[in-house]
Amino acid sequence: MDREQHDELDEWQRDPHPRYARARQAEGLTRVAELDAWLVARDADVREVLRRPEDFSSAGALRPDVLPSPAALAVLGRGFGGRPVVVSSDGRRHQELRAPIVRGLSPARVAAVLPYAAERAAALVDGFARDGGVELMSAYAERLPGEVIGRLVGLDPADVPAVVRGGHRAEQLLFRPLPEDEQIAAAEDVVAMQHLLDALVRDRRARPGQDLASDMLSHLAPGQEDLTLDERHEQVAHLQNLLLAGHLTTTALIGTTVLHLLRHRDQWRLLCAEPERIPAAVEEAARYDSPLQGFRRVTTRPVTLAGTELPAGEAVFVAFGGANRDGVRHPCPDAFDVTRAPVRHLAFGLGVHGCPGAQLAREQLRITLTELTRRLPGLRLADDRPVTMRPTLIHRSPQHLHLVG
Question: Which Pfam families does the annotation name (predicted)?
Fold first, then answer.
């Protein structure tokens, strides 16, 4: 993709909803050159794709928008990973990779970590509550999710910042056009994260614990003998994917939710006065501006979708964010309304690839809104710091979120 194409992609990714609306109104599917894929934006069509994984493969789900430079690739070659992961696998292999994650993020495990999440949320808010202003993404939204998923995985707390940084840098490297020196620096951060995860894997082989890293290791590489190099690569790939999904998505969800609540002051004031509405606000925020806007799928055989004939090997972009603004399922879909009667949305996917960490993300947002509305009811957007959305359909959020009050 050249620079001009990237600029066009950036423009509509910062606000994809008008493009989704046109795609929903069009007859059949819409081809989007910037994505090199057909856009699937109607609720019924998105659900059909997600319910037919045998016809729509996830193998290309993580296809990057940018190919790193040879120098950056050389740096990445010193790291670990590069193996298929749960989000980009199909069939039996997908089930094998998903099973320990589902167990590790069970309702009981999530409930057990919530006191820690609440404690850390309160401590992070303590850090800026008296300052009169804060950039919420860096001070809070990029920190709480990493600390929580890090605890579940079994990371040393001292290693969490490097792992979180590595996750953000991996996303930049594969989805943003960067100068070569920045690509190399990003690749160095990714490799540093991978070496931390490799050390964790080898430590858990020697000393298993009651954590998700140990569970994944015992499920995917049973036994007590030393891990082969290939097994180490595989374990790091799975952990990296889990951690990125576990903190980047929740970071984005926190940022977009606070942004839209503060843009709709009546909704914010309602939550401050009636905190029992917070769970409904979580669902409305996820529906209204989904943190994960969608994933790619590739047809495994000739199929017809929405009247459009697609050959085998054709890419589609399954837009959860588009489906969630479909008026056929959600009346007045472009209105942000925390009093909306609940209707199941697709912010966390559906079917065999539905997000196993959805409840953990919801609970962290619930804790966040409880903390902020109780302690900082006067919070508002800084008038002199306009909000710009990150140009991505993966982990959509504000680049920065300056608040005062």
Answer: p450
| Helix (H) / strand (E) containing 39 | strand 37-40
Q: Let me know: does 277 contact 270? Beta carbons within 8 Å.
A: yes
CATH of the domain at 84: 1.10.630.10
Token couple for 287:
């529906």
* Alpha-carbon span 100 to 95, nearest angstrom: 9
How many alpha carbons fall within 13 Å on the CB side of residue 198?
19
Q: How are beta strands 303-305 and 56-57 bridged, if at all? A: unpaired
The sign of the CA dihedral 80, 86, 87, 89 is positive
Could you read off the pLDDT of 311-341 as tens digits, one per residue?
999 999 999 999 999 999 999 999 999 999 8
CA separation for the pair 140, 120 (Å, rounded) = 10
Contacts of 182 (CB under 8 A, 6+ apart): none
- Reading phi first (left if > 0) and then psi (alpha if -120 to 50, else beta), residue 204 is in alpha
Percent of the chain exceeding pLDDT 90 equals: 84
Number of domains within the chain: 1
Q: Nearest CA to 289 among 312, 320, 318, 313?
A: 320
For residue 90, what are the domain limits?
Answer: 3-404
Alpha-carbon span 357 to 104, nearest angstrom = 9
pLDDT tens for residues 113-128?
A: 999 999 999 999 999 9
Q: Is 44 helix (H, G, I), strand (E, B) or coil?
A: helix
CA 78 to chain CA mean position, Å: 26
What is the rounded distance in angstroms from the CA atom of residue 147 to the CA atom of residue 153?
10
The whole-angstrom separation of Cα 225 and Cα 310 is 48
